[in-house]
Design a protein that fits this description.
about 425 residues; alpha+beta; BirA Bifunctional Protein, domain 2; Rossmann fold; eight-stranded mixed beta sheet; elongated; binds adenosine-5'-triphosphate; binds magnesium ion
Length: about 425
């Protein structure tokens, strides 16, 4: 007999949208904590905007003929009939909010954000439908100094995460809108001459977004693309000067880069500087951070002309990279230091008290108190399973003597009997032993 369609069928998560499980969350917190501290050290303030915006915001900023707007957005009508979209990226929302709250009037702003983004893409390793970005935007500054500084900030992040030797900075300049329009005509003429070599996607883009053809990953097109006219050779004088000043600042700061004349980025709002940090360790999802200058966007969205530069990094890809390269530090594993174990129910109250005392005096230690009773054997088993490095045992004898037994769970080492009233001090010494 076939099973009837059951109302008890388990409901699963949406394809391409991931649960972040306890085993991974400590690593995410380590990453996020490192980023947050870094943003503060560079004088960036966090901004949080809604996950949903009016669809027109993204269509007008990212561009109607980009992949994101054409086929990746989660767009729906709400109950009032308004067209809303789950944000596919952070810059548009950030600009909207900064304009709406008057943050851009005669002042500079350095803002950062993080959170989930949504794109209806084909899920694969490093590419999801809900993914997370952390990004920054600097408004009101038009010089190459701020471009260099945001790159330095990202480079410092790689250094702190141990990734600097595993990523490459790719740079290009898109020039001014006028120079790019002139270049676009030359490029289209070149592609027209080689029309027979263009794949279907590229033919479609030829009229709508020909620069994106340069970004094609199709190996059959590679030789033809290599000979295409280069944006770098068609820059306006001011953009060329800007770019040269940027590379000089990067060189002075000791930041290596490669110029990638085919780097165009998939969003329409960029001009002048564009950059990506890429890695070869993640297969084809190799871009971990991408950004550039978007001097025209604020005006395009109805504000006063405001120069701006920013970047966004994909958190999932960076977590994958840290995992793949085994660069996860001990502290990011989220392991317990101590399992506090009353050996019978009579010791519970005192064990709880000791655990609270240690937590007050040594806030950096992670302690878990055994709860739920059980036989002595099952308690010991739980201590072992907890992953803690040490267990604090408290039974009848310890209670009577005002002492506690410290057992090492992960190393061959004799257990210690410690005085309860000097417990925190002893533990502090032990912890610094381990760190040294
Ligand atoms: P890609 O070329 O990989 O599709 P993109 O040009 O669409 O990237 P951006 O819009 O610039 O990417 O987003 C910045 C960063 O966010 C990317 O470099 C990547 O690290 C991450 N990212 C973008 N889309 C996804 C996704 N679907 N899943 C996971 N991370 C993503
Ligand atoms: Mg994309």
């Amino acid at each position: 007999m076939s099973k009837p369609e059951s109302s008890k069928k388990k409901i699963q998560a949406i394809r391409g949208m991931n649960d972040l499980l306890p085993g991974q969350s400590a690593l995410w917190q380590y990453f996020e904590g490192t980023v947050q501290a870094l943003m503060q050290r560079y004088g960036y303030a966090e901004i949080r905007t809604p996950i949903v915006e009016q669809t027109a915001l993204f269509a007008r900023s990212i561009g109607e003929v980009t992949d994101i707007v054409e086929k990746e957005m989660y767009t729906f009508e709400d109950r009032n009939g308004d067209s809303l979209t789950l944000r596919p990226e952070g810059t548009a929302s950030c600009v909207r909010a900064a304009m709406e709250h008057g943050l851009l009037h005669n002042q500079t702003q350095r803002l950062w954000y993080q959170g989930p983004m949504f794109r209806h893409e084909r899920p694969q390793k490093g590419r999801y439908r809900q993914f997370h970005q952390v990004g920054l935007e600097a408004f009101g500054l038009d010089g190459p100094d701020i471009d260099a500084e945001v790159i330095l900030l990202s480079a410092r992040l790689w250094k702190e995460l141990g990734l600097l030797d595993h990523v490459t900075l790719e740079l290009n300049s898109l020039g001014s809108n006028e120079a790019r329009a002139a270049y676009r005509d030359k490029l289209v003429a070149y592609f027209e001459q080689h029309r027979d070599q263009l794949d279907e996607d590229s033919l479609r883009r030829l009229s709508s977004n020909p620069l994106r053809i340069l970004d094609s990953k199709n190996p059959d097109m590679a030789p033809m693309l290599a000979d295409a006219p280069k944006l770098m050779d068609h820059l306006d004088a001011a953009s060329r000067e800007h770019f040269e000043a940027l590379t000089a600042l990067l060189e002075a700061a000791g930041i290596d880069y490669v110029i990638n004349p085919r780097l165009v980025r998939g969003l329409d709002y960029y001009c002048r500087t564009v950059f990506e940090w890429t890695t070869t360790a993640l297969g084809s999802q190799g871009t971990v951070c991408a950004g550039g200058r978007y001097d025209g966007l604020v005006e395009q969205l109805g504000g006063k002309p405001t120069p701006a530069v920013g970047f966004a990094m994909g958190i999932e890809r960076l977590i994958l990279l840290l995992d793949t390269l085994e660069l996860v530090p001990q502290a990011a594993l989220g392991e317990l230091d101590l399992y506090v174990l009353p050996m019978d129910d009579g010791a519970t109250a005192q064990a709880m008290l000791l655990a609270e005392q240690v937590r007050s005096e040594l806030p950096e230690l992670r302690l878990q108190l055994h709860c739920g009773g059980g036989s002595f054997k099952s308690r010991i088993k739980k201590a072992d399973k907890s992953g803690a490095r040490m267990a604090l045992l408290l039974g009848e004898d310890e209670l009577a003597e005002g002492r506690v037994t410290l057992k090492f769970l992960r190393e061959e080492r004799d257990q210690l009997s410690l005085a309860q009233d000097a417990l925190a001090k002893t533990l502090a010494n032990l912890a610094s032993d381990v760190r040294a």
